[in-house]
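ok new one. same drill as before - structure tokens go in, u give me an amino acid for every spot. 126 of them this time. try not to just spam alanines like last time pls lmao
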């Protein structure tokens, strides 16, 4: 099984991505920033995670385009942020690809727990 974590490259989101990667034991996981993301990376992943700090970051334009035109109904997607408006934005860009989705809203990044990450992973049935 392979996992891909796509971030906007901000420190807070990268720290959540790192915790997700650490929690995906036994799964080959790649973390990349959206500006270095390639569509083939997504096709090779069984599960993917997307996180950003603000809605519609410019680095997500290619990712938005890909997700609008690909069917990933057999895949699972975890979305994460520390901003509820971003969760709504991420749900919107993932909707068209039909991936099964679970979300993680981190109230306080300094106080995030492994149990929060594990809950997201459990919801995705990984």
């Amino acid at each position: 099984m392979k996992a891909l974590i796509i971030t906007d490259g901000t420190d807070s989101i990268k720290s959540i991505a790192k915790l997700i990667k650490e929690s995906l034991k036994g799964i080959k996981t790649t973390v990349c920033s959206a500006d270095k993301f390639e569509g083939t990376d997504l096709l090779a992943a069984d599960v993917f995670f997307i996180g950003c700090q603000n809605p519609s970051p410019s680095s997500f334009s290619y990712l938005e385009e890909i997700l609008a035109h690909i069917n990933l109904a057999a895949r699972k997607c975890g979305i994460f942020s520390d901003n509820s408006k971003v969760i709504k934005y991420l749900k919107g860009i993932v909707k068209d690809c039909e991936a099964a989705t679970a979300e993680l809203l981190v109230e306080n990044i300094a106080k995030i727990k492994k149990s929060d990450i594990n809950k997201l992973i459990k919801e995705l049935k990984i």
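The domain at 2-121 is CATH 3.40.50.360 (Rossmann fold). and btw The longest strand covers residues 2-7.
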